[in-house]
């Protein structure tokens, strides 16, 4: 390899990934569909419960719960909403990383389509379904799936998650600065 190629390799975020990172990413990708289905069913159950028990929509219930925080039933439902919120936040982080895959050279669009069809389509249950839905050959699919997962892992662990950590850190420091200025 030339010096220039070695220099360019230092900017390749996929080179910093470990097998453990890839394994964790694969585990997250495999739980995406079930997590979406479970969260959707919980929201549906809660909507039913709010309507049957109080004859109001979830949004009306939440608005009312903000005003009256003493009811134990409201606390239980608030805990369930918080749990669903955490699931939705994880799904959002995963989707942010998927969007970044589109810009991965040289085959970002292909990687995006493969990952979206296989892992982010909640009804897709196999690799065969994914490549049939995409209308591509199995050899093309299998040639690109590993680099696609690697590109996704790099965007997740090296871009999206560090960005969240930095944002959270800045928000904490910003709130500390605001408190100091007030006193």
TrEMBL record:
This is Uncharacterized protein. It comes from Flintibacter faecis. The lineage of its organism: Bacteria, Bacillati, Bacillota, Clostridia, Eubacteriales.
